[in-house]
Amino acid sequence: MKLSTKSRYGTRLLLDMAQHYDQGPIHLGEIAKRQDISVKYLEQIIIPLKKANYVLSVRGPKGGHFLARPPEEITLGEIVALLEEGPSLAECSEHAEVCQRSNLCPTRLIWKEVAQAMFDKLHAITLADLAERARAGAQGA
Question: Is the pTM of this model over 0.90?
């Protein structure tokens, strides 16, 4: 499975916010420069993150965006499930009615098991964990 650009960049967006969590609201332009992602794309990605209450925004000259919860409380599993529109690898694994072979198909159960294993791992990693890994990687470079 390949994660979409939306998930990969959304994770980088939230990681950047986690790394600057105590610095107040951050302009998307700052994140765009640090992450080398276009502001326009970040503007699209941030919409579902705001709707799902992962990100809050403040208007005005000192405005910007910030995490709605501490980085320790947000998992990669939550982010990927939101931005991939669900925690499944195949639509039939979550919605059997989309395929006439669902109740006979042995691969359907495998896709469900694999997705569960992947999301179990992603749910075990928080933005704080990822920020720590990034900090350790930067110190080792």
Answer: no
